[in-house]
Amino acid sequence: MAASARVGNVLVIQEIEVAEVASRLQRGESPVLLDVRDPDEHAAGCMAGALLLPRPLVAHSISALVPDKDTPLVVYCAVGIRSAMTAMTLTGMGYTQVWSMRGGFDEWQRSGLAWIVPPLDGVPVPLSAEQAMRYSRHLRLPEIGMAGQAKLLAARVLCIGAGGLGSPASLYLAAAGIGTLGLVDADSVELSNLQRQIVHATARIGMPKVDSAAETLAALNPEVCVTRIQARLTDENVLAILAGYDVIIDGSDNFTTRYLVNDAALRLKKPVVHAAIQGFEGQLTVFAAEGAPCYRCVFPEPPPAEFAPSCQQAGVLGVLPGILGILQATEALKLILGIGETLAGRLLSYDALSMRFTELSLRYDPECSACGSSGPGKSEAPGWGLRNGRRLKA
Amino acid sequence: MAELLADLDRQFPGIRHRMIDEQDQIRPHMRIFVNGEQGFDLQQALASSDVVQIIQALSGG
């Protein structure tokens, strides 16, 4: 039987009957079975061993899935129309042995031939056709693919601060399809924020930052569930707020919050992607909760107020939090996907004036008051967040 | 290391006090790295090719 073929300048679609496909499979032939329906159709039932590649993604992704253009391909959809069009596309791309299954999966089922419900374990969770298109550039990366994108869609990330760092971090995380994005910020948008806090807008001056950010993020990706927490983190609320998330992004603007987040995250065993900025300088690292230094290992105590001016007092280059916030988003995505090497145990120091990134090695401190062998993070003692028996005053 | 800090203080008067306390200890919000590795000892010997980086805890976000 001839497959789809080029005859002169005309592309001829070759169809194959379901009975012929079944007998070929029975004879031990193993053409690639390409299911070009939408993921929800595939999830409801498919031919055993079929590869799911929704039709809109075929031109993008077929060469990664089937690099050899002489591979026999049996393409099917529900009734045989989408598969016929796909067969034409594939023939046009140079695939030499392409058949469209006449009558599609409906005919396959009507003929009483065996089919399966694809298992979810270890197999990509189906995405909708719109999701498959929105995240198509992620799906093409072998490190992410459908399974990785499904992890992102199921992930919960908390951004502490919807300011300089939180703006770019939350924008890219929303664009990446993080399922639930929590935003914690007690402040409202001010004119002086807009030089760097790009998730907000001039028209929204005076609006709570969490509301303003939620509006921008919803416009970018309406699928993302944005949880707005218009509050300052305190000893009383921090555990309850952090507990519902997989990864914490620390983009806060004061030491009190940074130590509080460190201690609570250690207690809850949540990774913190930490960044801090001032002037033209930024610092970035990951406090991985276990097996790596924590914030107090690096800086056991905050500086006295006169040694540590805030951005309001000292100034900050507007683009600086953009660079660091995007790096935070990158580390958060890696943590969720379980890919690459995070910055745990390493501090990345960035100097915008010299345009230099320097990597510094961090040490776990066995005497650390938060994560050391007798530190509160290692026990259930109610001392976490306290220092020398009193509340931390940063 | 101690000599380097003394020299730095000659160039930028007062900077040593911001980094080192009265007990000659590195202040807990300051960290000193030599060739990317954390150093705690002011008596640490330095070679002319060593790179010393001084980091302060930042809070801005």
How would you describe what is shown here?
The complex is a heterodimer of chains A (about 400) and B (about 60). The N and C termini of chain A lie far apart (about 80 Å). The longest helix of chain A is centred in the last third of the chain and has 18 residues, at about 320-335. In chain A, the strands form 4 sheets. Chain A has an 8-stranded mixed beta sheet with strand order 10-9-8-11-12-13-14-15, with helices on both faces. A 5-stranded parallel beta sheet of chain A has the order 3-7-6-4-5. Chain A folds into 2 domains: about 5-125, 3-Layer(aba) Sandwich (Oxidized Rhodanese, domain 1), CATH 3.40.250; about 155-390, NAD(P)-binding Rossmann-like Domain (Rossmann fold, 3-Layer(aba) Sandwich), CATH 3.40.50. Chain A is about 35% helix and about 20% strand. Chain A is built from 15 helices and 17 strands. In chain A, helix 3 (about 55-65) packs across helix 4 (about 80-90) and helix 9 runs parallel beside helix 15 (about 320-335). In chain B, strand 1 (about 30-35) and strand 2 (about 35-40) form a beta hairpin. Chain B is α+β, with helices and mostly antiparallel strands and about 60 residues long. Chain B has one domain. The mean pLDDT of chain B is about 95. Classes of the chains: A alpha/beta (about 400), B alpha+beta (about 60). The interface between A and B is medium-sized, with 40 and 18 residues.
Provide a concise account of the structure shown.
The complex is a heterodimer of chains A (394) and B (61). Chain A is α/β, with parallel strands linked by helices and 394 residues long. Chain A contains 15 helices and 17 strands.
CATH H level, superfamily name of the largest domain in chain A: NAD(P)-binding Rossmann-like Domain
Distance between the termini of chain A: 78 Å
Number of domains of chain A: 2
Q: What value does the Rg of chain A take, in angstroms?
A: 27 Å
- Which stretches of chain A are low in confidence, meaning pLDDT under 50 for 5 or more residues running? 377-394
Which geometry of chain B do the CA atoms define?
globular
Quaternary state, please? heterodimer
